[in-house]
Design brief:
Layout (H helix, E strand, L loop, with lengths): L1 H12 L8 E9 L2 E8 L7 E5 L2 E3 L5 H7 L7 E12 L9 E2 L6 E6 L4 E6 L4 E7 L8 H7 L6 H8 L10 E12 L12 E3 L7 E5 L5 H12 L5
Parallel strand pairs: 4-12
Antiparallel strand pairs: 1-2, 2-3, 5-8, 5-9, 5-10, 6-7, 7-8, 11-12
The protein binds flavin-adenine dinucleotide (FAD).
Length: about 230
């Protein structure tokens, strides 16, 4: 929530215009410009067009939706359906965050937005994975997320984690946050999740960016500056 508010303030200070609850369907070139086809999420039958010189596709798990619907070649990406449990911790852990890292371990962190703790596990947070390989086998990540039956793996997370910290057995399960995590196939082995930047991808002015880590936002500005797409 804090990051969101900081970004909203920066957007407003910079005078950026933005539209929310709009789905980008596709991008095509038209008279040396790019034409972005957009539809309001609550009124899918309505189609609008936005003309632009440069378009940045930063839609994370949905990057290949815009790409395939624009008749461009798919970018190989891997997706994981992930679960982070939300729990009430015993009083002794209320103000504490614990991460055991560098292996198949776990993390229990304060989650102030819900006044709970998140509980994730390297082995059990990812439920299963799939890859974008070609257009024929492409799976729309958001649609898949909406359609599937989500069964919590919290019991397994707890069973393992309490071997290291027995007091965790006093946690009370409240809810789970489900998300699709997107990673580059090449970073499978080391969790480095580097940035993917494809300038002029199939269309002049159409750029695709996949940031595998939140702080990639800083790397991408440097990369874009080097390409000369923006100044300053
Ligand atoms: C479970 C999980 C744990 C993670 N843990 C960490 C971590 O510990 N540290 C870390 O640095 N990173 C972590 N990440 C990765 C981090 O969340 C991402 O790198 C980051 O959110 C990417 O930012 P983004 O702005 O590129 O994409 P997002 O934040 O995913 O934003 C993409 C936006 O595009 C919108 N969108 C999609 N399709 C369309 C469309 N067709 N039209 C219009 N809008 C569209 C989506 O609704 C979304 O709002 C984690 C990710 C997951 C899923």
């Amino acid at each position: 929530m804090k990051l969101k508010n900081i970004m909203l303030k920066r957007i407003e200070d910079a005078g950026v215009q933005y539209k929310l609850n709009q789905k980008v369907l596709s991008v095509k070139s038209s008279n040396n410009k790019l034409l972005v086809q957009v539809s309001p999420t609550k009124k899918e039958s309505e189609i609008n067009y936005i003309e632009a010189d440069e378009v940045f596709n930063c839609t994370y798990a949905m990057i290949n939706q815009i790409i395939t619907d624009s008749s461009l070649d798919i970018i190989p990406l891997k997706h994981e359906l992930t679960e982070m449990a939300l729990v009430t911790v015993p009083d002794e852990l209320k103000d504490t965050g614990i991460t055991i890292m560098d292996g198949p371990f776990f993390s229990v962190m304060p989650f102030p937005a819900r006044d709970l703790h998140s509980f994730s596990h390297v082995r059990y947070t990812p439920h299963y994975e799939w890859s974008d390989i070609d257009k024929e086998h492409y799976r729309d990540a958001h649609r898949h997320y909406d359609e599937i039956n989500k069964r919590s793996a919290y019991a397994y997370m707890l069973q393992d984690a309490k071997r290291y910290l027995p007091i965790l057995s006093e946690c009370k399960y409240e809810d789970s946050i489900w998300e699709v995590k997107t990673i580059l196939p090449l970073s499978e082995s080391n969790d480095s999740r580097p940035i993917l930047f494809k300038p002029n991808y199939g269309l002049k002015g159409f750029h695709t960016i996949m940031g595998g880590k939140i702080d990639n936002i800083y790397d991408v500005i440097e990369v874009i500056k080097k390409t000369g797409l923006i100044n300053g």
